[in-house]
Design a protein that fits this description.
By secondary structure, the chain is α/β, with parallel strands linked by helices. The chain is about 45% helix and about 20% strand. It has 11 helices and 11 strands. Strands 3, 4, 5, 6, 7, 8, 9, 10 and 11 form a 9-stranded mixed β-sheet that branches. A two-stranded antiparallel ribbon has the order 1-2. Helix 1 (about 5-15) crosses helix 5 and helix 3 packs across helix 4 (about 50-60). The longest helix is centred in the N-terminal third of the chain and has 28 residues, at about 80-105. The radius of gyration is 31 Å and the shape is rod-shaped.
């Protein structure tokens, strides 16, 4: 740490005790740097009289003369020069810190499930960057909920247990498959359906049985196989030309690409939703833009 930096810390600690105002120090720093009360007033958008008042009060508090005034100019005294170096470095340090903080604010840290990250967020990120090219989105997949207010945890949970303000999408389920498998669905007596047995045991089961009854398919011979993530069920159904019973939210990319087809069956609502815990506490400027974009993205799956 430089000697001038130490002087700055010492002076600021002293002036804090002496109740010297930061506006007075800023007026002094500007006048010292520009060599003019009038120029300082223009930079700070205050009157020259206000600058003079601030500096007079500062001199009274410190019991020193900081400027020698003349009719045409002001000149720093030796003590004024010492304070000018310290305040200039101090305010530059503050401005640098603010710039760094502002730059960090442009990074949006998201934690979510592996399936939501892989099938919804990551494929759509290019669209987000086209709208907000200065932003950076860092996505981490996992089940734990981050406690800091600067991370966006997008979670899958029980709708009735969440605040309505935190919910960003209530889940619906249906059956999906390849176009070829779709043509065979009604003609085939026995089918294999992949679905999800959640790793989180507190989540309600996927509403497969209710869906079968809703579509009068309860008598169809169905072999059900489970994965603990929807992503794996979708991938395996594609590999085997089988069927996957999963949320409509996660299949939109596959549907758009023509890889999957949604069967012409009745969609069933579930007790599940995607939500952001304590969403209102996480609304920094850039987080707000991301959440607004995400909610519009999820509306397309209705």
């Amino acid at each position: 740490m430089s000697k001038n930096h130490l002087n700055f810390i010492f002076i600021f600690s002293r002036v804090t005790i002496m109740q010297v105002s930061l506006p007075a120090l800023k007026a002094f720093e500007s006048a010292a740097r520009l060599g003019s009360f009038k120029a300082a007033a223009a930079e700070l958008s205050i009157s020259p009289t206000a600058v003079s008042h601030h500096i007079n009060k500062l001199e009274q508090r410190l019991n020193v003369t900081l400027f020698v005034r003349s009719a045409r100019k002001v000149t720093l005294t030796e003590l004024g020069k010492e304070l000018a170096v310290a305040t200039n470095q101090g305010f530059q340090s503050i401005e640098t810190a603010i710039e760094k903080i502002t730059a960090k604010d442009k990074q949006i840290n998201v934690t979510t499930t592996s399936s939501f990250a892989a099938l919804v967020l990551i494929p759509a990120l290019q669209e987000y960057y086209m709208l907000y090219p200065d932003s950076k989105v860092n996505i981490t997949s996992g089940e734990s909920i981050d406690t800091d207010n600067f991370t966006l945890p997008i979670r899958l949970g029980v709708t009735d247990k969440q605040s309505s303000m935190d919910i960003i999408k209530v889940e619906q389920f249906n059956l999906f498959c390849t176009a070829h498998a779709a043509t065979q669905f009604r003609q085939t007596d026995q089918i294999t359906i992949y679905t999800t047995d959640w790793k989180n045991s507190s989540l309600p089961t996927v509403p497969l049985q209710a869906w079968l009854e809703l579509n009068s398919l309860q008598n169809k011979q169905v072999q059900v196989r489970h994965f603990d993530q929807e992503l794996f069920g979708i991938q395996q159904a594609l590999l085997e030309n089988a069927y996957v019973f999963c949320s409509r939210t996660l299949t939109q990319g596959y549907l758009k690409a023509g890889v999957l087809t949604e069967l012409n069956t009745h969609v069933i609502s579930s007790q599940l939703c995607y939500y952001i815990p304590n969403k209102e506490m996480r609304l920094s400027r850039h987080n707000f833009m991301f959440i607004e974009w995400l909610e519009k993205l999820l509306q397309k799956t209705n």
